[in-house]
Amino acid sequence: MKLRFLGGTGTVTGSRYLLSDENHRVLVDCGMYQGVKTLRRRNWAKFPVDPSTIDAVVVTHAHIDHTGYLPALVKHGFKGTIYCTRGTHDLCKVLLPDAGYLQEEDAKYAYRKKFSRHKHPEPLFTVQDAWEALKQFKSLDYHQTFEPVKGFEVTFTPAGHILGSACVHVRYKPHNRTVVFSGDVGRQDDLIMRPPEPIQKADVLVCESTYGDRLHGDTDPETELAEIVNTTVSRGGIVLIPSFAVGRAQMLLYAIHKLMREDRIPRLPVFLNSPMAIKATEIFCRYHKEHKLSAQQCEVIDSHTEFVRTVDESIKLNSARYPCIIVSASGMASGGRVLHHLKTLLPNHRNSVVFAGFQAPGTRGDRLVAGVDKVRIHGEYWPVRATIHNMNSLSAHGDYNELLHWLEQGSLQPSKVYVTHGEMLASDIMRKRIQDKFGWDAEVPDLFDEVEV
Predict the structure, then answer these.
(1) Per-residue DSSP letters for 381-447?
(2) What pLDDT, in 10s, does the model give residues 347-365?
């Protein structure tokens, strides 16, 4: 069996791994590239293998950097089944059509405003393309073994990152060899998600390294968030939180309402301005048995948050001049309704913009966190006078200590570890940490490398 790295190397986006033997091809994850322009261009390149020759896709979790290229894969000829957990399936019913809608809207906006270099900007895929891809999904339970193609036996185990997230275990029956893909690994003590389940066996491990070079620190996220909110409110400002619609938005809403209930911050209006995040929150509440929050705690989030559903409601909210908290997608400020809030709120020194996790290099969020004095949105530059915060303590990814702790919880003795899904330095530092701590043979692969497993 061979493993080829079609994405997710040297970067935290575009997760794509191809397992193959003489007769079959199974793709693990099919993510879209985000971040700097050179990475985004890869979305438009011809897929490295003919999509029609891929027999099945297995997905670790719903985030767009792991699923976002699926509609394009189907559009270009993939006819097989897409396997995932039940939570991932329900979330993808929201994320993929929404991603198609945003791409269509961005193309229209670019055409109207004439800021694209293309005369007629086109979306990578449409809403209809997303729904066509969803027809090929099949969802399964954790620990349920299935065979997507003959000889490849697959099982999902909880990864603790977001609802439905999983490590993918692939046992190649002819040689009795097991390859485990970590997907994105969650925290050991997350506010809302349970810790990742330890891995007991892997001959080959493909391990993420988003925070392979960093620690989240000892800062209490609730205390940090309370200080930001209280300081902003004291100067009459608005707190804007660009948030990933799945996982981070639900964590933030829980933390905000908990702080209000404990009288650690004022009881402010809280708005969730993202149709995708609203639907994801509703799904999160339905799956309360798969995370830490009870049905009652989910109900508090639902009843004490004002969901901004329509465009007209969003436009009205954008004219707000009173202290409030706005949570809006996207988490790296790369698109969506949050961009209109940024244009309104960034020029005012009273306001705060709070990023809640990793900002991929080249994204608008990365530039704001780095301290730029102006930022380009919709073809124009906007001054940055608001206070910018980046709360890594709210990240849904384990840092390198948490990853190492997770790896040592199981009974692993892999013959090879491939360190992926990280910036080049982070991956290489994580490789060395794994080698030093466990003595395992670890390597950082290059894009399109193919290895025997």
Answers:
(1) EEE--SEEEE-GGG-SS--HHHHHHHHHHS----SEEEEESS-HHHHHHHHHHHHHHH---EE-PPT
(2) 999 999 999 878 888 889 9
